[in-house]
Amino acid sequence: MLRIEGLKTYFHTYEGTVKALEGIHLEVPAGETVGLVGETGCGKSVTALSVLRLIPSPPGLIEGGRVFLDEPEDIWTLRNGYDALASERLKSQGWVGSLTSARVQEALRPEIEGLRARLAESKSGEEKGELRRRLQAATSEFDILQKPEDQMRGIRGDKISMIFQEPMTALNPVFTVGEQIAETLILHRKPALCADVLKSLDRQIQARQTGTKARRTTAARALDRLLAGREPATLETKERERYAQLAALKPTDEVCTNCYHKAPRLWDYCLACGVRLAFDPWSWFRGRIMRMERSLYERMLRDPEDQLVDFVGTIWFLRRLVRKRLRDEGIRWAVDMLSEVKISDPERIAGQYPFELSGGMRQRSMIAMMIACNPKLLIADEPTTALDVTVEAQILKLMKELQTRTKMAILLITHDLGIVAEVCDKVGVMYAGSIAEFGTTEQVFHRTMHPYTNGLMESIPRFKGSASEERKKELYIIKGAVPNLLHPPPGCRFHPRCPRALDVCKEVVPTLTQMEPGHLVACHNPVPRVAALTPEVAA
Amino acid sequence: MKLWEYVLRRLLTLIPVLIGVTLITFILWKAIPVDPARAYMGPKAPEEDVERLRVAWHLHDSLWDQYFWYMGNLLRGDLGDSFVNKEPVLSNLLPKIPATLELTFYAMLFALPVGVYLGIVSAAKRNQWIDHTSRFIAILGVAVPIYWLGVMLKIFVHEDLAAIGLNFLPLDGRLDSAPPATFTGFYTIDSLIAGDPGKFIEAFAHIALPAITLGFAQLAIILRMTRSGMLEVLGQDYVRTARAKGVAEKEVVFHHAFRNATNSTLTVSGLTVGAALAGDVYVESIFRWNGIGQYFLQSAQAGGFTDLLGYVLIVTIFYVVANLVVDVLYAMLDPQVRLGGS
Amino acid sequence: MATEIEIGGTGIARAWRKFLQDHASRISDLKYSLFLFRKNRLAVLGLALLLATLAVALAASVLALQHPFYVSVGSDLEQRWNTDLSERLSPPSFAHPFGTDQFGVDWYSKVIYGAGTALQVGLLVVIPASLIGSLLGLVAGFKGGIIEEAIMRITDVFLSIPGLILAIAITGVLGRSIVHVMYALIITWWPWYARLVRGQVLSVKERQFVESAKSVGASPSRLMMRHILPNTISPVVVQASMDFGYVILTAAGLGFLGLGAVPGTAEWGVMIYEGINFLFTAPWMSTFPGLAIVLAVLGFNLFGDGLRDILDPRLRR
After folding, report:
1. Do B254 and B286 share a structural domain?
2. Is the Cβ of B256 closer than 8 Å to some Cβ of chain A?
3. Where are the domains of chain C?
4. Where residue A82 falls among pLDDT bands split at 50, 70, 90?
5. Pair A433, A9: CB distance under 8 Å
6. Among candidates A154, A164, A172 on the partner chain, residue whose Cβ is nearest the Cβ of B246
7. Where in the sequence is the domain holding B216, given as residue range(s)?
8. Dihedrals phi, psi of B182, to nearest 5 degrees
9. Which of A16, A272, B341, C78 could crosslink B336 through cysteines, CB 3.0-4.6 Å?
10. Same domain for B58 and B131?
């Protein structure tokens, strides 16, 4: 699903260049949760923001690496071959450093041109397919770092979504929750929304033509009116349905007097029968307005970039012709999203502002906003750090459920090893801008290899029983402090604090090597808990 | 709380402030270094007439009594009689108000959109050329005196523009010909209502230079405040969230960010009304604009004490009400203020 | 972490080095502030303009081509200049860099002397206004309760009258004179400081570190001195330096309106006013004093802005 290779992000500040990420390698397969742990300042958030290319560009810059989204397995295999070829060529030219798509394409220019030429000449469909695949592999087609900004914008919120740590500050305080969720949908799902708009427009036009009138009333009163003094048992079948419908609601819920369907204040029309429920200052022109809207939305459905629609959108008092219904429909979908994230009474919540909600609700709303378009990857940057423990559990459970249902991949960034143990299938341990260790949770926790990870595990305070001798011992801490990323230590960045440091660690940066299947570590002198295996260098 | 409750609350806090202002004008009245009655009647008037006036003005009573008499008059709308032309001050002021309002309106029409737009853009495109230009304008706007700018513009139009033959902007007054029939008192609007486009152009040309002069300082302030408000907002998390949703940059700036920055723009709009009222005096004097500012100045120069103090009261009431309107707009735009956020 | 550096040398040198070492962090802070200031080119420009204005004012007797003399009229001292009607209304030239006025007085010299007038007015207004205002603000913020309410209400009343209007009214009532202008401006300006300082005191009082100082047992006066005062001083200083410019601007404005200095005095505002009668025949009369105002105000404004940027902890780093 997501494959990060050699990601390098630097920040050029007045004091110097902060080398925040120094070659990150990470993989998040579909349907799995991968945790990214590390101390504050090790670069976890920077990694996430780099993937989405949201690094603020005056100081920051993605200097190198590639990030592959949704790359098919066969292309990957082909690409490995091409990459190896490209790296050899670049090395022979004296190039040291991580690969970027641009460089690879430079290095493989003859091959790429050759493939293109053959593709143009080719007649057979099968051969074309094969050539195309090779071309994609050679040009790192699925690398999102090389894509233009407008394509990237299409990816953000749609294929890759990100939720942030502080839901209070991450949600815009002047828009309601419903509006904010609707916005994601309007950005990425316009055609589907237009179709729905047209459907409800048709319903409303019909209702208007038949001249039905209705108001809002409470379910209790509607019930009284329906029964009109009779017993529920004496109702006819049609009325019985209505009765069941009303009985299921709270007495104070509002319903449409025409069809007795639930009618929250968020919308001006009844959802089921299409009758207008709110006061309409334009009632005289409403028919004509609706016809205009209908034609505009039809155009929008056929072509999202339609010129007439854009033009109308720029004239400030005509704007609502092409915006309001879209927004209302978006809010309708948003309400569905809110109930998916287990918020009760979603219609009411959709109309509220972020400051009116509790922390857990805000975080759920943000999740609803970001999964509205069913992303393939959800990046969660410390989503529960600001929440109470019980709420934290609920949110994590919610995320796992969503994952099971949609096979979405989750990259969970956290500093809490407990969460990782509970929720993550795989985990990557970051230290000072690079991955120290990566593997399944079981591997990393039980067969820790990197001295840093080891230190982390040791420093978790454990309850050992009041009478135990263990209890009287001091808490373990990793000596030293996190390095200054302006002037990181040479060689392995952890070596000043490492109890197992060798001379080579001071000079040579360790690369990620696979020690057992799926378990990689970047260390010259890993913790010897595993029996000697032949290390294979990771791709 | 509901909006109208909020408005009511604010109206109530107005009252002690207005009372305080009447105290100040009263103190000023008592601070006049000469005998007001004698100054009113002139040096040649007989002493017994002057004495009668002194009694009528309660000048021999205790300070408290004098203040109550003063407040009584005010509440009846009596601002006293002008020392200059012996007419009631209020009737001197009222006919001149539309002229000043028209001037202020056009000045704000110039300053507000330009200032806000430049403020937003210069915050969004920080350190690019438009940012530098805008900041330059903002700095100039504060340092360049309004009175000097008006004078310089006059010279420029008269000398330099005349040299290239573009001397179409008149320099003084509101019109060279007779004014149109009065509906609103705004010559530009009235001439349109009267169906006289030629006069509209004339009135508009006359108001161009004064409005620009007055508006320039306001523009600078508005630009600065909008820019700083936007800078603060653009650093907020929700802007990053909007980008993470895939919102285009233009929309992020003008829709997501600006809605949150409106409150600093709004704050400064309240202040600019006060600055405009002050700058008015300068502009009306330079361009011989027959509004209340010029009236005020002439009273100050000629010793028209009642006119002075009456003007202060009127203008203060206007300023305070304008600020109230700003506060109400605040409450309307910011849901937290309205709904009583945490 | 303490680095052990041998402090060599003897006597004063040693004492100086020890001083540097003891206050190392403060000094590096200062160095950083200076660096930031230098980086902020506008602020440096502001400082330059400010110092230039000061220099001109102080060196007037050297820089000017003509000098005024003083004549006592009634109880005041009036400034007079030698007239030379043969030179009247002559445009800028070598002999008269800024031209002459309708009496033949050298305009350049008048502008030079105007700097002194302007700075004097600025000083005599900003210092009392800031002191009075800050004092009241401190009292209001610290004492709270009815005293605070009373002071803030009074402040509100003053602030609800547009500043210039109040100043014109005061000078209109008291009579034209530069002294009256100064009184008027002091009365107009002090409320800003009261409000500013009280706001600062309140916000500092709320902040966590004051709580923690209190919990360690600090007494109220110690609280005030060590914690609250330093934090309130910087905004006041920033405001005062910017206000210096604005006061000069407004005072000249009042001069322009004919409410301040007597025509004939070397005061920038009044000089622009005199120039209006000769606007098209001698445009230099109104132009140069205005330019001087612009430069002076610009200087104070940019400098104050730069000061604010340095002192704002959020903008550092």
Report:
1. yes
2. yes
3. 46-316
4. confident
5. no
6. A154
7. 96-302
8. -85, 115
9. B341
10. no
